[in-house]
Amino acid sequence: MHLPYRRHKLNASTTAAEQPQQQQQQSRTPQPSITMFSWSTPAGRGTPNAGYPGARNASPVRATAINGTIRAPEFTRAQHIESYLNDGTLKRSTRQVSQDDSTYDTVFQTTRGDTLIVRVHLPPPSGGQSRAPAMTLAGVRGRHSWLDSKMRITGYAPIQSDDAWRSSRILLGAAVHEVVKHMQLEPPEIVEITDAGLRSIQANRKNNGSSTRSSTASSAAVGRSAHSSASQQQSASSDAPPEYSSVLLDMPEIPRQIPELDALTREELDQLLEDELEFTSFINGLPIFDKIQSTANDVLDENSKKATANLEKEEKVKTLHKEVTELKTKLEGKLEHFATLEQKQDALCAPPDKKDILRQLAKAKKESFHVSEQLAEGWVEDGANVDGFVREFVEKRNIHHIRAAKMERLQFASAKNV
């Protein structure tokens, strides 16, 4: 899903506590505006409202449980993604950067003027239960109380573990909202910008930050360059957000001059190029070729050792795969059985049908009436003790009247609801 990117302005240096003082200074000092989101007035000079940013004070949507179920209330994956992509504030600066629906980038700007990207990865459910999203600051290295050494956001409590995420009962859009707000108002200390696109954006903003027109143009560059570079660096991994560090092979430096060629004439050089055997022999005799060959042999030996180690673990991997497959089959069977039992539980815990209750009461009332009538007929024929007959007859007939009263109350309640 690709959403259009728009430009909006945020007076990021203004907070609710500073409004009275800054309103007095507006007539004397022009306030620079930072382009990002639509969290300020249209003119870009006003102060954020009480719901800054993006009506965050609104009550979050909560999950609700099904009547009678024993499962904890939980949002579906589609609901989480929809809340994120359709968020009134975030959707203008959010892009999907994976082939599937797992990874997204949201561009935002801090109060210091730094443009940052928070990468949100929503892993697939495990065992029928949702897993906590992983959020990472992409393309930078920095320090912040919410960040670990790999720039993963770990300070936000609801995403610290799968259990914490499920128990929080909040949507993904609200969670990203809170993280972006915190990173904007309490920005991290940027040590290094590892992403080339972000680095050029930051440089352009510093050079053109004093001009409103330049600031607006930079905002457009944020959306294009930041998401373009993020898409190029996207990893195919389906587990965690990609890292922004690469392992480089320590290759020997290629010499700018080759002394063996300095003494050769043009004709000798042409002859060397035309004779493939002589050219190959000459290349093999260069010192740099020996270094390259030595490096290649080292890499080959290392790959051979790793391949041998992998082959030694092949049987173990096959055994584990077989065990996992069997466990998966058992789990699927248990889940089917659980679903059947849950349906039965829902049926048992659901409110009974009033028509069915009335039908059963009518039948029971009729039975109790016949029992009392048979008792009276038997007494007339036998002429038994009067006191015993009256006591037993009243008891049986009382049951009949109780059931009739219950029917009347239920019918009256149904008519009143209609």
UniProtKB/TrEMBL annotation:
Q: Which InterPro entries match?
A: Helix_hairpin_bin_sf (IPR029012), Mod_r (IPR009851)
- Provide the VPS37 C-terminal domain boundaries: 263-406
Query: Superkingdom of this entry's organism?
Result: Eukaryota
Q: Where are the stretches annotated Disordered?
A: 1-58, 204-245
Which ranges of the sequence are coiled-coil?
297-330
Which cellular component, as a GO term, is one annotated location?
Answer: ESCRT I complex
Basic residues bias locations: 1-10
Q: Which GO terms describe its biological process?
A: protein targeting to membrane; protein targeting to vacuole; ubiquitin-dependent protein catabolic process via the multivesicular body sorting pathway
Instruction: Report keywords, A-Z.
Output: Coiled coil, Endosome, Protein transport, Transport
Coarse class of the protein's main subcellular location: other
Where located?
Answer: Endosome
Q: Where is the composition biased (Low complexity)?
A: 12-33, 209-238
Q: Which protein family is it in?
A: Belongs to the VPS37 family.
Q: What is this protein called?
A: Modifier of rudimentary (Mod(R)) protein
